[in-house]
Fold Selenium-dependent xanthine dehydrogenase.
Amino acid sequence: MFTFKVNGTSVTADKEQNLLTYLRDELRVTSVKDGCSEGACGTCTVLIDGKKIKACIPKLSSLVGKSIVTVEGLSPREKEVYVHCFAQAGAVQCGYCIPGMVISAKSLLDGNLNPTRLEVKKAIRGNLCRCTGYVKIEEAILQAADFFREDLPIPQRETQALLNTRFKRVDAEEKILGTGQFVDDLILPDMIYAKALRSKYPRAVVNRIDLSKALAHPDCIRILTEKDVPNKKIGHLVTDWDVMIAEGGTTRYIGDALALVATQHKETLDEVLALIEVEYTELVPITCPTDALKASAPLIHEQGNIMRKEVLKRGNADAAIKKSKYVVTRKYSTPFNDHAFMEPECAIALPEGEDGLLLYTGSQSVYDERHEISHMLAIPEEKIHCHSMLVGGGFGGKEDMSVQHHAALMAWYTKKPVKVKFSRQESLNYHTKRHAMEMEFTTACDEQGILTAMKAILLADTGAYASLGGPVLQRACTHAAGPYNYQNIDILGMSVYTNNVIGGAYRGFGVTQSCFATENNINLLAEMAGLSPWEMRYKNAIRPGQVLPNGQIADPNCAMVECLEAVKAVYEANPYAGIACAFKNSGTGVGLKDIGRCLLSIEKGLVHIRTSAACMGQGIATMCTHMVCQETGLDPALIVHERPDTNRTPNSGTSTASRQTVVTGEATRRAAQKLKVALADGKSVVDLNGQEFYDEFSAITDPMGAPKDFPVSHVSYSYGAQVVVLDSQGKVEKVVAAYDVGTPVNIQSVEGQIEGGIIMGLGFALTEDFPVQGGYPLLKFGTLGLMRATEAPPIEVHLVQAPGEKLPYAFGAKGVGELCLIPTSPACSHAYYRYDGKFRTSLPLRETYYKK
Ligand code: FES
């Protein structure tokens, strides 16, 4: 028996376990999050006798007589100050890290109400945040110090939510205080737990799976195998991903599931899994795309090892290169990269109605999951009801199902609520990654430095399954020439199956890789042409009315040159400054269905915004609130934003391709326009109780290869220029970024996206790696190389717009989510090139302040 205090109340625990599990599972103190259970992430930070500790570490026996404080135990004044300051600063995105951050802030401010920025950084060094880049969290803590020190009153709430203003995001409070629920915060009556047995080898024939000993375990409820799956394969776009591998089948990566075990208690899952006996014949895995392309290579999928091929040609690149004064050819390589969202994957499925299922999920599209699960179970989509809880970051990594289908399958058979949750190591090993790519780029220009042509070959490792490897490769290719004005391109891309981890969607969607190559080549050409890299880009930057290399005419709202102008001074003033440009589509484009839908229903005098657009932290609820308030002038206190739910919210497609602000934003604006008409003649919202206002927006684009001179590939593009400045030690001193994202919807959110994206981009460039050897990932969460607050440099953000007409949708707003990190790695490599003269062609950059 161990007696101690939690938030002022004495508690007695009767069995030994770690504090995190006890707080979450037994006391239901759910502000304390389980981000890694390895002491690396800080999402479970609590105070023990006033000292901050990660709750996943201490055992209850070490806590006897001690006093534990979590966010739930803060005083009312502390709660209101932290809620105000974190929301006002824009410090909250997905929110998963935030209660832990607040505890670290309290630990600092309890002893020091005049902290410096550096002291704040040190105080939160143990808390990882993957969304914000720490800048706004630091500002929030400094503000909170002012409030406590000066005993400042909390300002009145905002009564307007107009565009391009600072407005506190609508889901801030529940995330700061930890009252908002993520899937893992739910414990349902009679709930059981499930976990899959994964393949021991990346490639092996599964000769026999013997379940007998496992079934005899007293806590085992059910074990399912491939035989129990009605439709054996799932897949977001390509149905090639086995739900489980059958006896006699061949595994494709170490994440392949062989059996799915359900137990009464989650603690026994590993014991039962260990009792399953599998006989394998181990095979030599294919671990690189070049080997997979050899004629002698075994086929990973029946249809061959080339998952997707892209050929893009415009003009005559060979002829233009021949006539060009300067030509460079270089090979580049970029590694796998983990999304490292702070919330590991978790889903709960349970029976609903007579023969349906309810799925609690945290993903990027509830409708995609409904579709895929109904396919797997061979039942109508209407039988599957998907409801989204809060989502603790996604960045593309929660587009594919990971745990949802296993939860649904087990619930289907057992007729019980089933929770399936990845440990952090499972998340690292099994979910999709940014594609590793090998690239050869040739770029040419004339004597004056005017770009003339480029040729490129891109080879992407899509690993064991397709995931979104097709569109990722396509975007890598369509954006490979950069945001410049030239017409001769010749690009060949191939995405190839291997036995590695799976390449999938990841913020930047392939452009992160090809931008690294193209921007580095431009630096070499600038040198040959005797131009500064800034000048070279300025001469060639795409301007409104000019034609992008893909043939699309740049809109009047294109502000590439304005972005460059905004960073010129800082680039020129610093000898070790590196520069890069980028552009990124908003919307799926290329002729695909791209529809945003919004239903505004008036219920009890409040306007409910109903759309399935998933928020993984980027701020969909706040964006939609702005759209409604800007259009109608309503007080934001009258607005309720509902979470995605296939029974309540119309299908707004996946949160991908930086599309939701434009597509769902415009659908919401249109629905709000109808509401505004109904509110005319002095009617109030209450007068409209029971009424509904629906609209949608379909972004129409031309398909790839459309027989047109100037196809519209995407409904809009955002543009950016970034400068990374190194100090004399070769450490990043600051980053200055100028971005054209059209009309900023919410200032805190736009800045926050950019700051968070830049820190993620610096990680990709300098500190992160995802080594995979022989098909096995060789890392733990703590060795991933995620940047911490003390490593994050100052970031200066400039939001610029073109003088021309705005995009005619969503009040002229464009996507920001992906663009922000695309130019960071080439800007870093350029800065190091200027620093030490070494031209680096692979990531993460080596021989730097950050990596040997
Ligand atoms: Fe920090 Fe998402 S807000 S991890």
